[in-house]
Write a structure and sequence with these properties.
This protein is an alpha/beta fold. The chain contains 6 helices and 16 strands.
Length: about 270
């Protein structure tokens, strides 16, 4: 884990409310793994009081790191307005990422901002020769809030989309597409990776459990510190013996085996 001050080299609005920023940091880029995250704080012009925010690694190439975020409050609004050349404080890489070993076919599922960690994961799977056997399912409220499809199609992955209002792709939740993709799934090397809101993750966990498919979920939780000290991001999990425990999303996660996670109806 490193704490570094970096200069913002790009800040681009890519959809209705989504922004993508970029900066360079060799030490963090070399250690980063898909599914891990950074804590980011704006230092200029006068935001020293602002708490750091967690952001998944979206894309990492050489020394360059890119992050995707949605403007939802004061912190992300400030970040969206930060000018190229301004300073950021970044801490990372943090957390446990996705595993990419023993994968014969991968299905990546992103709902809303859940798309953020998936381009980096797709790139890693491509390096392992899995692009031709990779399906990416993206869900959003409307066509205008879909983004980064090219990040996957450029790698040769099959991309399917779903929108709540039907303005692009399938009308309905992205988990409908997952149900179709899992029909007949039986090979042990098939893995589902998903990130998104809790209702989506709950359905993904159920679908994969019913079909006996390995599944890893990236959990979205509010974080204050990112290093396990404040306990604000604890989530309920179940061990292999049925015991219930609390684990910190920032350190034991954010990626968990779907079988570990307890949802409201469990």
């Amino acid at each position: 884990m490193y704490c570094r001050h970096v200069k913002l080299v790009s800040n681009e609005r890519i959809s209705e409310t989504y922004y993508r920023i970029g900066f360079e940091c060799r030490e963090i880029a070399e250690k980063a793994r898909p599914g891990q995250f950074l804590m980011v704080r704006v230092l200029e012009p006068a935001w020293e009081h602002m708490l750091s925010r967690p952001f998944s690694f979206c894309e990492v190439s050489g020394d360059r790191i890119e992050l995707l975020f949605n403007v939802v409050g004061k912190g992300t609004r400030s970040l969206s307005e930060t000018r190229v050349g301004s300073s950021l404080e970044v801490i990372g890489p943090l957390g446990k990422g996705f595993s990419s070993e023993d994968v014969s076919r991968a299905i990546l599922v992103g709902g809303g901002m859940g798309i953020a960690p998936l381009p980096f994961l797709a790139s890693e799977l491509t390096k392992r020769g899995r692009a031709a056997m990779m399906t990416v399912l993206l869900g959003a409220r409307t066509a205008s809030s879909l983004c980064l499809q090219d990040s996957f199609t450029d790698l040769g992955a099959e991309v399917r989309v779903a929108t709540d209002d039907g303005t692009a792709g399938h009308r309905g939740p992205v988990t409908d597409l997952l149900g179709e993709s899992l029909k007949g799934a039986s090979d042990s090397g098939r893995v589902v990776y998903a990130c998104g809101p809790e209702p989506m993750l709950r359905t993904v966990a159920r679908l994969t459990r019913e079909r006996g498919v390995r599944c890893e979920l990236s959990v979205e939780e509010r974080m204050a510190c990112g290093v396990g000290a404040c306990m604000s991001c604890a989530c309920e999990t179940r061990d292999e013996h049925g015991g219930v425990h609390y684990q910190r999303v920032c350190t034991e996660g954010p990626v968990f085996n779907a079988a570990e996670l307890l949802f409201d109806e469990d």
